[in-house]
């Protein structure tokens, strides 16, 4: 057993619950602490620059509000579980909100009047100013306003908890829709702009930084209403398999249509998602099927990219001058060979040892590529530039959208191959190795051959992604091939659901797509990314789209 | 030498039992040996470095090796019990290092640091340990405990997530500038042993690593908690069945591992004198490498792994690459480290002191 | 010193499948009770639920005067409920001696623990010479002996065993069952699941028959031993 | 001494040491083609270790192992499987997270021939082979009596079924020699007798030679043609069931004089004879 | 959509016109490395730009200016994505950034193909403003000087002023430092000097003593290394521990022109020299800029590039001010081509680093250099003029 295998025990560790008052204070304290952390880490200020609803509420305010709403909600739920009436429960929510508000206000007063800045750089007058609504920044009035607002928000959260389940969902969906619209303003604005006939709507719905107030009301109410209507329409029950199929079709439609009708940026992001899908499918063969951890996966991506560069660039280092269409299979093949070579020495290494060995190999490749010693062949830190774009009969691919469709086609192809391999004797052998190497071998499976095949196929997929990547960017630099990419691909697999092909797509959408959309929060992007990883795993431990719905939902 | 026919027979026997993979592995081994020989020989011929230089390299390597070892100890502790790499460990170390810094700043502000440097050091280290342990507990609470009963890689991904969170939260909270670590007068001294200048700090690092290892070994081998830890490591359900509170044992392990990271963080800062919020990532990887090299789950292995890795990095470019006349050989420092790691794993897939991963019991 | 074990309406499910349904029984202090049942009847599931290794869907479990339904496993051990689990579940990389010693994890009185250790070694002399061998390298039968010894080391009021004779040589089976009787004679309540139904019924005061997760029959050991259905289904006389 | 060409498995002077402990010493074992041969002996006598040596799970310290006259010792485990040796394990070792039928299909791996290209192209060859393999897997599950549980995850199955599944998986490799390590453990006497019938069918219907380790004397006596008794790593006795049963040394070392189990076994054999 | 001539309100422009409704803000974009290995640099640059906007009053022609920033990391794909994202907003008039040449190489054409000029901060690669650069770079300017120029200056100082004959160089594998080192070496050799060691390290290396030992064996007269703050700190501190290097001077790059290097290097910073802007403006204004920066963002700039961010923003604002035209209703119009031309026509604009004058290729850097030397090891003593003090010219 190791990190990359299972870890399990049959019993859970339960938290002992306290009295409702204690639980409310606890919930409030959590909300308050979250808000304080959010402020002191500096995220408040950067998110305060973005409006959700134009000129009315900023993203930062929304986040803090959500913390407190959540605290009130949790307090009320826990009170209701102990049998409190709705009114009392709301009282507990208010208590939680009060605690949160007090904590937050206290922290702000501390920031305003005690110099914390030598250690906490974000504890700035600007922060105090930003959270002040009434009164002088840092004054008692300002603090009182915060406390009042906290109490109110806690009560509202609690009140929401007292709603009937369907209404609660409706409220939640309404808010989520609004938040989504505000957060991804640029995407939706682009969408409106491009959809025929809707272009005129754009300035009505979106201001410069967020949703206009009127549109906000329409969106929130509309989404909530829709949710209620859908909930109450009698639907014929859908079999799980049909449902999955429908979801699958929807996913494909989404993948094809959305980039078409939005702007270049969405296409660009979609393109990156596509490349990660290719890579993740490769790693899925290694890790998801054969259980071989590979933290040096980025090396194959690099091999593909550099092969493309050396085959299609006008750089003097370029060995040959091929067209993209010839270079692509060449890059794939060379990456596959690299996979084979990688696999050979580490065949007998297992589990975490394998993780480290591959990580080491990946780093070796990266350093080689950046090194002065290899500069005459690989360009060193200046990389290789001016890689020709693919062209087909005089028509050159150059927009992100075109590349996206290229990636999509390749991903579909690779997905098909993956699926076929998975459901064949080879795939079964891989699974068996993952489960118990010794037994698999005793059943006649040649471990060496099977593992090498997994490495080779996985590497080929990654190399293909790398080749497309190089052609898209038009240049390759060693700094694009960091360890972080390997880790990212691993996270995609697990978040999506290990061993699941649709999971790979969903995982890439979430882990590549969303952070791209959050690019504007620059320095906090990885903070949010980290939080997203944690939260996703807590909500969907098996991944967002697990391989097969195994029957043992509650079981060890 | 055995008679000819016996040798032939042995060869035939080898051929009967081996496959092409054995051949390839043999070739790799020979290739490695040849490379090392050529590089080493070439380096000797090149004669860039004096014996004194090499001796200094050994001292450098041992110092950084001690730090790797301390990080590796934390990994190995947690791994031993959960069979899980704590990916956030490097960042726990970073936060611990900041804890020590703030304590030192406070002490310095109160004038204690200058007045009683000998007394202040334990206080600073303790601060690092407490902060490290605290953060490690947070990591356990968020990334491990909720997943004790499920079968998935979720803890691993959560730990990676926590690593990002710690790094970038620290950046947001403390800023991204490099921070100077205060020196403790007596530690800045050096002394001579056989013509070799040895800084006091190096000795401190060495002693610290040794003491920590001894302490951990004592805990694991001799105490009730230690025995419970080993039991939980082997079979969590069975441990619960003999009355061990599994949750508590895991918490204790994380706390110890975190404290270890705190020590490593402070020690790192004392040796290298400046810290940033990003130091955790690369040191974390090195610590992981050291733990694997020594055989993960094995405490003495962590020390050995750390020292060997440190030595390889310090000596490798000088002793191996010089012979190949490569430009900028120190760019390959990490390559040497990782290559050595991979080589060791080829020869000993279980690490230097590790036990065979799977004794094939049927 | 011995405690009553009372189970009422116990239901345990794996996902949608309810493997144990509304099982109720009571084991009186000092009794030796056995559960008999075919493959997959739910015996192991019942025992795991008793020891807290399995979340239960419904029902109550009482040990003496304490309701232990929602206690974590280690607290149940401290209250005097010990299990010899199916498949032994030793700590393979700890020595035999360590495995035995850790069985007494919840106990602090060193002298009494030492005395119990001596007793275990008398029961299984073979283990004496193996004290320093890693438990994982023992043969299957030797492991089973350690597993029993480990559970006894906790000096339980109620001892629960899941197929303790599995994989034991016939001679040792005798020995183990004798030992079990001796333990029981010392005042320890015993709940035994055993595939060697003949021997189990022979030594049991009372027995239940579990079929598809439900108790379908109860009686004294001797009664059931002579029951034709039992003879056919579990003793194989019809073969 | 039987005719050598009659021997399927011929183990000569097998030895295995673990550090200072000699687990198997100078063991000779001859298993006749088409027979059911049992190994019994006290716990820790080295029975499982001998199995492990034969299947290359551990490397023997000394000795030779011949299958059908061909040396197989020292070969990698998958090559031994390819020679036609399959086994089950004392502590069931299934692919816990795969379904029963998938477990069996893995067993068939050795006999499947579709190439990488066939699989990627999903051509007729692939479909033919895959269909046949699945059909065979179902047959095998039916054969061992767990056909209805084909879709269940292995780890969700009760212990006894897991043992049967393990046998089915081993059979899927189409072995010449099937080695079973305590197949009746965890089964009650009635189930044990069902197992006896299964093993007989394996020998008679499938023509597979069976070598088994077992402590359930009823099973051993009811089924085996020859029995080898191990004690402390060495062969204590070898012979037909009747001789073994009455061998004083065996009784002293293994069966135990008071063994009621043995008495039942005798009774059962008597019943089986008369039937 | 391809760019075409357009007339909106009072403005006609061959590449299109941005119309800003009354009360709406003018959008300026920014992209720099805010995550990954070069985080500090990018953040400092963007913060510098924000300060410029603040100093400018936050408005152009009475219209508030909004600064939208994106993370470009320090990679080509980061630059590409950030630029694409910025370009998706059609209201954007100009962009400040990026920090790295790799990002500029991909990002600048994306922006310019949509008529958006960009002003590079840390992108120093000579090719970006070469006369034969591709058309996509015709809208790219930079306030940071081209590597070739700074190298020329430094070599001149080392060779002609100090008269040193041999150097050792160290870079950290980043395109920026490697390029500077190569330019320096080339010039140095051309001027008759000798490069006795050309070493490289990794950006996260902390024990540089072995590589310094190797250099010591070559006995250079000077070590030239433009690596960043952490590495420079390690290098300066550890240099003393390596026999034979104690007195070898070190010349660093602009990337460490900050208070932080004092903290990083401790006492070893004394005598350390770096290259930096030489102008009057710089000497006068930089200290107060650092103060303002610290009040605003909690810590002083950690690297040396914040001043370029400031100047880039300044150029953009000035350009906007020059070409924006209001109509009778109070809406504002900015012609894209006009703005680009106005930016390229920047002359003697008093920036933070000096008077900015843009060449026809887009190099706007003041390129008047000085060598600065640190004289005090107290972190609070950072004040260009006294610590570090100008030693040449
Ligand atoms: N982890 C699991 N997931 C799903 N179902 C399970 C699981 N474990 C057991 N079951 C099911 O629960 C039922 C009872 O199993 P249990 O192991 O308790 O039987 P048992 O009586 O102990 O059998 P045996 O004598 O073979 O040990 C069986 O039908 C089995 O398939
Ligand atoms: N890997 C090992 N290391 C050390 N000793 C071992 C190892 N494997 C087995 N042994 C020892 O070898 C002896 C023979 O063990 P083996 O498992 O072969 O016994 P067995 O005959 O199968 O017994 P059982 O019937 O109890 O399963 C035992 O004393 C055991 O402790
Ligand atoms: Mg059972
Ligand atoms: Mg055995």
Automatic annotation (TrEMBL), chain A:
Q: Does the keyword Transcription regulation apply?
A: no
Q: Do the record's keywords include Transmembrane?
A: yes
Q: Which GO terms describe its cellular component?
A: plasma membrane
Segments traversing the membrane: 21-44, 56-76, 88-116, 136-163, 170-192, 204-229, 249-277, 289-312, 324-347, 401-419, 452-477, 489-514
How does the protein's chain sit in the membrane according to the entry? Multi-pass membrane protein
What keywords sit in the KW lines? Cell membrane, Membrane, Transmembrane, Transmembrane helix
Do you know which Pfam families this protein is assigned to? BPD_transp_2
Q: Which terms in the Gene Ontology molecular function aspect does this entry carry?
A: branched-chain amino acid transmembrane transporter activity
**Cellular location(s):** Cell membrane
| InterPro entries noted in UniProt | ABC_transp_permease, LivM-like
Q: What is its main location?
A: membrane
The protein's name is Branched-chain amino acid ABC transporter permease
Taxonomic lineage from the root: Bacteria, Pseudomonadati, Pseudomonadota, Alphaproteobacteria, Hyphomicrobiales
UniProtKB/TrEMBL annotation, chain B:
* GO cellular component entries: plasma membrane
Q: Name one GO biological process term.
A: D-alanine transmembrane transport
Main subcellular localisation = membrane
- For this protein, the parts annotated as crossing the membrane are 20-42, 54-82, 94-113, 119-139, 151-170, 196-220, 249-271, 277-296, 303-323, 335-353
Membrane topology, from the record? Multi-pass membrane protein
Top-level lineage group = Bacteria
The keyword Membrane is annotated on this UniProt entry:
yes
Where does the protein end up?
Cell membrane
The record's keywords, sorted A to Z, are: Amino-acid transport, Cell inner membrane, Cell membrane, Membrane, Transmembrane, Transmembrane helix, Transport
User: Does the keyword Membrane belong to this entry?
Assistant: yes
Signal peptide residues on this chain, from the entry's feature table: none
Which GO molecular function annotation, any one, does this entry have?
A: L-isoleucine transmembrane transporter activity
Q: Which family does it belong to?
A: Belongs to the binding-protein-dependent transport system permease family. LivHM subfamily.
What is the protein name for this chain? Branched-chain amino acid ABC transporter permease
User: What species is this protein from?
Assistant: Siculibacillus lacustris
Lineage here is: Bacteria, Pseudomonadati, Pseudomonadota, Alphaproteobacteria, Hyphomicrobiales
UniProtKB/TrEMBL annotation, chain C:
- Name a GO molecular-function annotation: branched-chain amino acid transmembrane transporter activity
Name the UniProt key words of this record, in alphabetical order.
Amino-acid transport, ATP-binding, Nucleotide-binding, Transport
State the SMART domains in the record. Answer: AAA
Q: Which PROSITE patterns match?
A: ABC_TRANSPORTER_1, ABC_TRANSPORTER_2
- Tell me if Nucleotide-binding is a UniProt keyword of this record: yes
Which Pfam families does its entry note? ABC_tran
Q: Show the InterPro entries listed in the entry.
A: AAA+_ATPase, ABC_branched_ATPase_LivF/BraG, ABC_transporter-like_ATP-bd, ABC_transporter-like_CS, BCAA_Transport_ATP-bd_LivF, P-loop_NTPase
* GO terms, biological process: L-amino acid transport
Which residue windows are transmembrane per the record?
none
Q: What is this protein called?
A: ABC transporter ATP-binding protein
UniProtKB/TrEMBL annotation, chain D:
**A GO term (biological process) for this protein?**
L-isoleucine import across plasma membrane
What Pfam families does the entry give? ABC_tran (PF00005), BCA_ABC_TP_C (PF12399)
Q: Which InterPro entries match?
A: AAA+_ATPase, ABC_AA/LPS_Transport, ABC_transporter-like_ATP-bd, BCA_ABC_TP_C, P-loop_NTPase
Q: Recite the UniProt keywords alphabetically.
A: ATP-binding, Nucleotide-binding, Transport
Q: Which Gene3D superfamilies match?
A: P-loop containing nucleotide triphosphate hydrolases
Return one GO MF term: L-isoleucine transmembrane transporter activity
Question: Which parts of the sequence belong to the ABC transporter domain?
Answer: 9-257
- Signal peptide location: none
Please give the GO cellular component terms listed in this UniProt entry: plasma membrane
Q: What is this protein called?
A: ABC transporter ATP-binding protein
Q: Which organism is it from?
A: Siculibacillus lacustris
